[in-house]
Design brief:
The complex is a heterodimer of chains A (about 270) and B (about 240).
Chain A lengths: L1 E10 L2 E11 L4 E5 L6 H9 L6 E6 L11 E4 L11 H12 L7 H4 L14 H14 L4 E4 L8 H18 L2 E5 L3 H4 L5 E6 L2 E7 H7 L1 E5 L8 E6 L4 E5 L13 E3 L3 H13 L1
Parallel strand pairs in A: 3-7, 3-8, 5-6, 6-7
Antiparallel strand pairs in A: 1-2, 1-4, 8-9, 10-12, 10-13, 11-12
Chain B lengths: L1 H16 L4 H13 L5 H22 L3 H6 L2 H6 L4 H23 L8 H19 L5 H26 L12 H29 L10 H29 L1
Helix pairs in contact in B: 1-3, 1-6, 2-3, 3-6, 3-7, 6-7, 7-8, 7-9, 8-9, 8-10, 9-10
Classes of the chains: A alpha/beta (about 270), B mainly alpha (about 240).
Chain lengths: ~270, ~240
């Protein structure tokens, strides 16, 4: 379990989080979303330990031991690696730091990465796959993945996500993801967290969220449910509403449409920009 | 980690050893252009001396170069290594190479007293490390380190003079131990605050922009610099008189 308590963090004078709380139970797959600059990547970095909170603490399950970072796999949006090393040297380096006897290169084998290539010579997608291989090799208990997965091609993304699902099923992996391709991960995400102004604005199980966020196609705004955002067309408008309840359906003038995860997140983010 | 740092240190050493290309160059220049009558061994010893100064300076100043250049601080700090472990892995191979260079220099007449010179080179290395976090430009780094090293060197002489009560008869120390003791005194005086500033900064360092993390560093380093300058200025005139 990850337990974030009273966390405050600032970049210079800019306060990003103040008294922030979040609990992520073991084995949960959680998606963090929000508009650009709201602190999604910063939150991942704080959990990974590469940023330090100004106040508060981030606690991990006791079974992870004193050196919990040994069991955290983190891939950031900037793909931080030693670029001047070759793939083989990077694997050696990683193995020595984590005391690994073997390295599972099954993910890399799907790519055209040569062990003699320098990291700086790899494409962004290849680097991402390589970095994912590194972090999966440590058999993490917590996986923190920033939105960089977009850079992998569809084939490799599918292979990676299949591996991820398998790992999650086998080892009760806790996964926190930021703004991944929602369509790809919709079937593995269990919880969605929307950040707004350094706070959690929405924190719902994905099934609850799907039942609570709807699109209403109508010429007039619905009066009975709050509108998150809207798109206007010449003859009608689309109103994205939250929280929607089934019992109000008869009182709504218009068609109520279910949304997928991409549309739900867009509705919330659209509301932020409105 | 150690393997990577050894490789990085050796690369720095190889770059410094490129200075030895100056040996045949100097010899040819002397033979055909300037006619100072330099011997090949003299030029070699001079180049070794330059290398001995260049290596600790470069090795200290570039200790975090791969992280800065590759933006790899995030990767480094995500690894399950304590800051002390990171520092040991980084310092150890560079220090060992420096000590080997110092030992090898005893085979040539580079320095009159290898103990004093060796100690000063280690101090130069340590000054370069503790100042490495604050410089982004190598040139400013070299100027800054040279300034601090000159301060250390001068203050060790002044400390000696103060201990001898400015006795003209003892203007020059008579034993290696005396010099080293005063050098240690000056090094401790300079490196303690700088080392504390470096350690506090490095221990808390994360991937935020470096300039946002340097407050405590400058709060210690700048007053140290002022105190050091005041100390040298107060005694420098008297020191120069004695040296004359």
């Amino acid at each position: 379990m990850i337990s974030i308590k009273d966390l405050s963090f600032n970049y210079g004078k800019f306060k990003l989080f103040e008294n922030f709380h979040l609990e992520v139970p073991e084995g949960e797959v959680c998606l963090i979303t929000g508009i650009n600059g709201v602190g999604k990547s910063t939150l991942l970095r704080l959990i990974a330990g590469v940023l330090r909170p100004a106040e508060g603490e981030i606690l991990f399950d006791e079974k992870m031991g004193a050196n919990h970072r040994r069991k955290i796999g983190f891939i950031s949006d900037i793909l931080s690696l030693y670029e001047s090393l070759t793939v083989a040297q990077s694997i050696d380096f990683h193995k020595s730091v984590y005391n690994l006897d073997k390295f599972d290169d099954s993910l890399i084998r799907h790519t055209k990465i040569s062990h003699n290539q320098k990291i700086k010579e790899l494409s962004t997608g290849q680097k991402t796959i390589f970095h994912l291989s590194l972090i999966l090799s440590i058999e993490p208990e917590i996986l923190l993945i920033d939105e960089i997965i977009h850079s992998i091609d569809a084939y490799l993304r599918r292979i990676f996500l299949e591996q991820l699902i398998q790992l999650q099923a086998d080892r009760q992996l806790t996964i926190i993801m930021v703004n991944l391709n929602f369509h790809d991960i919709e079937h593995i995400v269990e919880r969605v967290i929307l950040l707004k102004s350094g706070k959690i604005a929405v924190d719902e199980k994905i099934d609850d969220l799907k039942s609570k966020v709807k699109k209403i196609i109508s010429s007039t705004p619905p009066q009975i449910v709050p509108v998150l955002s809207q798109i206007d067309f010449s003859a009608h408008s689309e109103f994205f509403v939250y929280p929607y309840e089934k019992k109000v359906k008869d009182k709504i003038d218009g068609e109520v449409v279910d949304l997928n995860l991409t549309e739900i997140v867009s509705a919330f983010i659209g509301g932020e920009y409105a | 980690m150690l393997k990577k740092e050894i490789s990085g240190s050796l690369k720095t050493l190889i770059l410094c050893l490129l200075l030895f290309f100056g040996v045949p160059l100097g010899y040819v220049m002397d033979k055909f252009i300037i006619h100072f009558g330099w011997k090949l061994s003299e030029i070699f010893n001079f180049m070794y001396l330059i290398t001995l100064i260049a290596f600790p300076l470069a090795a200290g100043l570039t200790i975090f170069q791969s992280e800065k250049k590759d933006r790899a601080f995030e990767y480094l700090f995500s690894l399950p290594l304590s800051r002390l472990q990171i520092l040991i892995y980084k310092v150890l191979p560079r220090l060992v190479i420096l000590l080997v260079l110092i030992v090898v220099s005893t085979f040539f007449s580079v320095y009159q007293n290898i103990w004093i010179a060796g100690f000063n080179l280690v101090v130069l290395f340590l000054i370069s490390i503790v100042l490495s976090v604050s410089f982004t430009s190598p040139l400013i780094g070299i100027i800054g380190i040279s300034f601090f090293f000159y301060g250390y060197y001068t203050s060790s002489h002044i400390i000696y003079m103060i201990f001898t009560g400015w006795d003209p008869g003892k203007a020059f120390p008579d034993s290696t131990l005396t010099v080293i003791l005063h050098n240690i005194f000056a090094a401790v005086m300079l490196l303690t605050p700088l080392g504390i500033a470096f350690w506090i900064t490095f221990k808390k360092m994360d991937v935020k922009p470096l300039k946002l993390q340097m407050k405590s560093y400058y709060l210690i380093v700048l007053p140290t610099l002022v105190i050091f300058i005041v100390f040298i200025v107060l005694f420098f005139k008297k020191y120069l008189n004695y040296m004359q």
